[in-house]
Amino acid sequence: MSSILFKVSSYLRVLGKYIGPGFMIAVGYLDPGNWATDMQGGSEYGYRLLFIILMSNLVAIFLQNLTIRLGTVSGYDLASASRRFFPKWINLILYVLAEIGIIATDIAEVIGSAIALNLLFPKLPLPAGVAITAADVLLVLMFYNEEPESEGSQTESSSARLVRYFEIFVMLLVLAVGVCFVIELAYSDIVAVDLFKGFLPSKEIFTDAGCLYSAIGIIGATVMPHNLYLHSFITQGRCQEWRSRRPRGDIKPLVVDPDTISISLERDTSQKVDVPYLARYIESNMKNNLHYGLVDLVFALCFAFFVNCAILIVASSNFFYGPNTQRQSVQDLFSAHDLLNTYLGPPAAIVFALALLCAGQSSTLTATLAGQVIMSGFLGMSSRPWVRRILTRLVAIVPAMVAACVTGREGLSTMLVGSQVALSIQLPFAVVPLIIFTSMERCMKLDLVVEHKDLQPRPYQEKSHKWPKPIIVKNGLITKIVAIILSTILIGLNIYMVVALGLGI
């Protein structure tokens, strides 16, 4: 018994070092865009769209696991992999589409936070709420620095601590959202039988055009494209220690014996490398990263799944199954707040606004970082991170501020819904490249020895065996089949979305 407890405690202790990136991704699955779609779907169709939330979360886990594999094995994020392996014209097209997606994401987060501030402080003008929300970028600039200026251990340790503090801050915001919705669920009158039936597929989802449209909106708001870029980037932070220990040579290595190579280094020095030991060390650490990264992801997205379900359940129980069987359709987050205030009282309405504020603030932090990753990855920008973050934030703030000043509440709500449509349309342009890269052998390889100067691996020479054979971790057949099916479904749903919007369905 004691040995089992020791193994469990040891496992949890190691897992604790990897917890963080999953929650930074999870905030995108409970952002204001999810609130808008879940609230509307729950108020109009009851619990039946819980099945769509469940399926969307499973798809998200599958795709995000591919991003963990991409970042851990190849050392590229999704954007930089596009710049490395795609022709320039394809890379440029994908960059423009990704930038549109990040703008749509950031607009939704900014609008959600501004709405939350207005709900908590009714006298605060909406434009002021947008401006206050924009200030969260200062937190990112102060606390998040994933690019240490030097390779010294002290700088890297200090940077790692700041990144860890930032991850904990985001996790606390996510936890606050979850606590708020536990309180909302306690206020709500829930019929358990109807709730569990909602996790089963129903034909109305596919035969009712309005219900299907809401389902597509939930998918677009849940499986967000910017998270694929961000996760493939931040997961590399857990790999720096063991990746940096790989030998780095200047010229081709000379064979000493079948299991040992001598690598020429700078200043006419050399280093002997035990190839089998090095391969075991690298592969063991890589597998640890893949395993614990997946556990972190599953745990975080299960929490996000609970929050998404809670939002829809609160909307269903209070608005679809309303008092005296009076159904109330939620048009926007303002009306949802007003209805909760009417049916459940002011405390529930305040908790709703606080949860929306925490969700908006946490998701807008990660959206800003995703914008930086996209800009630097696709374009290869070497400017300081804070410059890229400010540029990304300004692009989102300007349209949100215009809507707040010109059209007010109605304009913000329209932009919030429209941003989710843009995300849904952009999603396949992130998913398909992700599937291609994780199935590509020349991308999904981990070299045991890298060049010292520019850290680019030398090509493996099969005949002479002068360079150690890299570790290949590409998608298997089953993964490829599942990925192709998912991408086909996403593309089909987006075609339906475009056609439905064009025909005014």
UniProtKB/TrEMBL annotation:
Per the record's keyword annotation, is Iron-sulfur included, yes or no? no
**Residue spans crossing the bilayer:** 12-30, 50-71, 92-120, 126-144, 165-185, 205-224, 290-315, 348-370, 390-409, 415-437, 481-503
Q: Which domain of life is it from?
A: Eukaryota
InterPro entries cross-referenced by the UniProt entry: NRAMP_fam (IPR001046)
Q: Name one GO molecular function term.
A: cadmium ion transmembrane transporter activity
Pfam family, any one: Nramp
Q: What subcellular locations does the record give?
A: Membrane
Q: Which GO terms describe its biological process?
A: intracellular manganese ion homeostasis; iron ion transmembrane transport
Listed A to Z, the keywords are: Membrane, Transmembrane, Transmembrane helix
Q: One GO term of the cellular component aspect?
A: plasma membrane
Topology versus the membrane? Multi-pass membrane protein
| Name the UniProt record assigns to this protein | Natural resistance-associated macrophage protein
Query: Which species is this UniProt entry from?
Result: Phycomyces blakesleeanus (strain ATCC 8743b / DSM 1359 / FGSC 10004 / NBRC 33097 / NRRL 1555)
